[in-house]
Recover the amino acids of this structure.
């Protein structure tokens, strides 16, 4: 009997290759005779280009060409605005190469193609650019004020989009309230910093007329669509492959980046493979950023702490362009009420242009900011009403019997109203309180204080709409020769373990070993229906599609095996790569034999194939070799389109100690209670959470892109932009809760972004609790550097 | 300006190195990085380049038995040296090195990009410390703080270091 693989801690199928140094990242693909591209980028934030002379660069031996916008022909066009929305009144996207104006430091101006990267980089330095600089305003708040310097001369007020959504009746709620709490919070701009930067390689095949592009993308099918459109090619003539990708975390969902246009263009022009591999400093000023938002949030509550209404107005920094639409701001706005019932919500945001790198989703996609806003406000409300922080949350939770809980007119990123599908919020909070032993902690805190040590406890409850549509597909086929199962989706994987979890799902249906399921994704030449990897959706949407396809393939196997074994289909069991009559003690037939026999053959290319040839007794029948409507082999495709997002949630808590002299922070405990529905592989789920928490720690303490007032990015390297090392990350204790989602056949909710969302609030809340005796000013900003903390305490001293 | 013609950036020098136990004699440009030499000239692409400024550790290889950043080393500097890369970590019969085994067992890798460099650093650590099996988390964390991983949050890498020490001990 096979054991159920769904839910098991199965080791990963993908690891063996990766630990042997046999990964296939874009720069590892052997491309004989490849040319190398390097971009020349703007080093000023906003300017007219008054002179652009590439002649010295072009003359350097080894340089084949230096492209400027004038060389792009029909490609010298604005790149698409990928997610249109009616509220985007002033949508601006960039050209592959700047024309007469640059809008941020890092914008591509020219593209050098040379025999190797060293020469290409030499040449890029020889490009002469003269600028007439224009005034800039980097500060988000000031950029949105009247009279601020404009990023785009024809966009008044720097406002790209403005959206107001109201659910319920907020004015009445505020009129009825006993108490109103209002705060302003500020999250800084950051970058995902995947270990592999962006990378593109392309080969144009003169013979077949096919363009093959290897690209570190999260959306190969979308990119294929864009390239076919831009280059005016039939879809089948463009193949996009996302091979191994060294981390994604969001920004690789965006396309087309300039490299995704210029590299294929050069490959076609020179009839040779071309490669462009982004370096780290370039990644900082080129790959999209996220996170800078300023929220003004107000809660209207009864004196018992029941929140009747919420009003949030926020500014979202979209950088110099808005290629991914309002996605980040919209996701933030829909998560603003967290797990709380809050029946009346007004949320308004403006997407503001600043002369900086464009903004698209980074792990969390607006949720960390929304979580910081609502949870900071809940802490403040508890404080003002003299209520316990746990208790005020408990009083406001959506209760299990209230699901599905819809927030009418609050439209989420899937175009549908927010509907929380299921959850046990109070149970999760209770689990955290038990794990942290809150009462015992209060005693410890007091005892520590008497010794001059400052301990604090913080918490944050988050919800996450995951598993967004529109749909994904799954394709399952049993290989007739080996009996292994070949599985495809339209996704890509950047480390999430798809080759294992999808294999587990298929294994349960077809009775094959997990390691005998081969999952191939990220290649439009193999499978090209679907959307991509984002929004914690792979397990939910593709997992469900793969499951549905596997159920169909299972039925085909059972029917065919019943035929071969002359048995009743109901008696057929699939296990250990075979089909047999249950309880018969007979070996039955292998999956390879079934798949071979299901494919009428002429040629006996191996021993098993003999049975399927036309004169073999098993293959004889009166009708045509394939019955009407039948297909050869064991193969099925199915799709899953979620009715709406499924809502994962959880609560994190920490106990920290703050050194009152250095403001160094020691995290004594970090506990994470989470619910992502049924877990396919708890080991992988825990890995996702641990990694998410680490990125959250980065956001809480370190990760801030420092633009100076002229718009230069001051910390564009791993020396200066701090990301956590092992020494900065605590041990994370995890408590799993599994409330199946009613929306999909496997009861799954997404988990990819979960770990990142609540961390900043947990830390802020814990530090505030620790330094309460010093009357610290309320923490309203992350990341929390020691100097920022010092200023919060000094500010408190000055207030006295 | 004619400065670019006044030096020979692509002047070639012959170097003799041992790479994963194999003698290699190659002509390299004087400014070629060791990481590029390994990856593009020898096609040992298991060594990855994460930052090209010596911070992230993804490009770690062993030079004469000691972990080093191949992105901060010129190929000409390793003339006469012995280099070991991730491709040389497993045993000749294909069986995994304890670090590889431990990384797999402990789910200490996700995207796998930092993994080769991380494993080379840990392999060096195993040579250096014989108390890892029972070491505290904090002390292991200190010792692996030369490498960045953006996926795992390090927790499982800490477990893998301890597990690798156990496996080494069982073997030895």
């Amino acid at each position: 009997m096979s054991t159920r693989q769904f839910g098991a801690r199965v080791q990963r199928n993908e690891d063996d290759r990766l630990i042997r140094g046999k990964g296939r990242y874009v720069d590892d693909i052997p491309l004989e005779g490849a040319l190398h591209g390097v971009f020349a980028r703007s080093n000023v934030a906003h300017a007219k280009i008054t002179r652009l002379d590439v002649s010295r660069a072009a003359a350097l031996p080894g340089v084949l060409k230096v492209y400027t916008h004038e060389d792009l022909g029909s490609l010298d066009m604005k790149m698409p605005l990928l997610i249109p929305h009616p509220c985007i009144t002033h949508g601006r996207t960039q050209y592959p190469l700047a024309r007469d104006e640059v809008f941020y430091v890092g914008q591509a101006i020219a593209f050098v193609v040379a025999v190797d990267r060293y020469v290409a980089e030499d040449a890029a330095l020889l490009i002469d650019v003269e600028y007439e600089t224009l005034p800039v305003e980097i500060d988000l708040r000031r950029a949105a004020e009247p009279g601020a310097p404009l990023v785009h001369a024809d966009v008044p007020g720097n406002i790209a989009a403005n959206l107001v959504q109201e659910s319920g009746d907020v004015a009445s709620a505020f009129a009825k309230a006993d108490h109103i709490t209002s705060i302003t919070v500020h999250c800084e701009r950051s970058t995902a910093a995947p270990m592999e930067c962006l990378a593109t390689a392309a080969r144009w095949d003169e013979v077949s007329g096919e363009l093959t592009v290897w690209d570190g993308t999260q959306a190969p099918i979308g990119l294929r669509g864009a390239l076919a459109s831009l280059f005016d090619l039939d879809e089948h003539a463009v193949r996009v492959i996302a091979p191994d990708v060294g981390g994604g975390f969001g920004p690789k969902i965006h396309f087309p980046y300039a490299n995704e246009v210029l590299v294929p263009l050069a490959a076609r022009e020179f009839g040779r493979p071309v490669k462009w591999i982004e370096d780290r400093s370039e990644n900082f000023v080129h790959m999209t950023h996220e996170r800078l938002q300023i929220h003004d949030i107000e809660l209207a509550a009864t004196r018992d702490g029941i929140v009747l209404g919420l009003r949030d107005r926020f500014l979202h920094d979209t950088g110099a362009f808005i290629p991914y639409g309002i996605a980040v701001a919209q996701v933030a706005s829909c998560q603003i009420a967290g797990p709380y019932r809050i029946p009346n919500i007004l949320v308004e945001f403006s997407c503001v242009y600043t002369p900086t790198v464009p903004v698209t989703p980074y792990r969390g996609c607006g949720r960390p900011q929304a979580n910081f806003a609502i949870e900071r406000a809940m802490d403040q409300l508890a404080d003002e009403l003299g209520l316990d922080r746990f208790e005020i949350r408990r009083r406001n939770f959506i209760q299990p019997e209230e699901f599905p809980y819809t927030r009418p007119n609050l439209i989420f990123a899937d175009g549908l109203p927010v509907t929380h599908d299921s959850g046990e919020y109070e149970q999760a909070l209770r689990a955290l309180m038990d794990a942290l032993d809150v009462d015992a902690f209060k005693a410890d805190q007091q005892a520590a204080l008497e010794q001059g040590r400052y301990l604090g406890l913080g918490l944050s409850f988050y919800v996450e709409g995951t598993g967004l549509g529109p749909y994904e597909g799954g394709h399952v086929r049993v290989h007739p020769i080996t009996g292994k199962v070949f599985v495809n989706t339209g996704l890509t994987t950047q480390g999430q373990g798809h080759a294992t979890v999808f294999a587990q799902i298929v294994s349960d249906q077809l009775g094959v070993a997990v390691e005998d399921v081969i999952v191939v994704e990220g290649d439009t030449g193999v499978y090209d229906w679907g959307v991509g990897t984002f929004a914690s959706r792979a397990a939910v949407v593709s997992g469900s599609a793969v499951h549905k396809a596997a159920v169909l393939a299972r039925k085909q196997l059972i029917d065919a095996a019943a035929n071969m074994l002359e048995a009743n289909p109901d008696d057929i069991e699939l296990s250990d790569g075979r089909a047999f009559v249950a309880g018969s003690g007979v070996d039955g037939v292998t999956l390879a034999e079934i798949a071979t026999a299901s494919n009428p053959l002429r040629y006996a290319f191996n021993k098993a194939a003999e049975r399927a040839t036309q004169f073999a007794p098993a293959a004889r029948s009166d009708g045509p070799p394939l019955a009407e409507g039948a297909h050869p082999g064991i193969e099925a495709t199915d799709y899953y389109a979620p009715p709406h997002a499924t809502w994962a949630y959880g609560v994190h808590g920490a106990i920290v100690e703050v050194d009152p002299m250095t403001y160094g922070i020691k995290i004594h405990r970090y506990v994470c209670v989470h619910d992502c529905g049924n877990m396919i592989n708890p080991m992988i789920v825990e890995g996702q959470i641990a990694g998410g928490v680490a990125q959250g720690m980065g956001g809480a303490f370190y990760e801030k892109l420092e633009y100076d007032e002229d718009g230069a990015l001051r910390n564009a390297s791993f020396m200066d932009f701090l990301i956590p090392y092992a020494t900065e990350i605590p041990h994370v204790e995890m408590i799993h809760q599994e409330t199946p989602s009613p929306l999909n056949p496997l009861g799954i909710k997404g988990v990819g972004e979960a770990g990142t969302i609540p961390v900043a609030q947990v830390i802020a809340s814990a530090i505030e609790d620790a330094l309460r005796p010093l009357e610290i000013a309320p923490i309203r900003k992350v990341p929390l550097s020691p100097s920022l903390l010092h200023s919060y305490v000094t500010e408190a001293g000055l207030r006295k | 300006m004619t400065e670019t013609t006044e030096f020979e950036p692509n002047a070639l020098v012959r170097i003799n190195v041992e790479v994963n136990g194999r003698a290699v004699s190659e002509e390299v440009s004087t400014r070629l990085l060791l990481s590029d030499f390994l990856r593009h000239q020898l096609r040992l692409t298991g060594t990855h380049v994460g930052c090209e400024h010596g911070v992230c550790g993804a490009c770690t290889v062993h030079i004469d038995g000691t972990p080093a950043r191949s992105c901060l080393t010129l190929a000409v500097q390793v003339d006469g040296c012995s280099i070991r890369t991730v491709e040389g970590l497993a045993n000749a019969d294909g069986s995994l090195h304890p670090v590889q085994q431990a990384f797999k067992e402990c789910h200490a890798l996700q995207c796998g990009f930092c993994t080769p460099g991380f494993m080379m650093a840990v392999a060096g650590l195993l040579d250096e410390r014989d108390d890892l099996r029972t070491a505290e988390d904090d002390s292991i964390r200190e010792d692996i703080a030369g490498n960045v991983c953006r996926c795992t949050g390090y927790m499982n890498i800490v477990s893998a270091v301890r597990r690798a020490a156990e496996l080494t001990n069982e073997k030895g």
Q: What stands out?
A: Chain B has two domains: 3-88, 98-171.
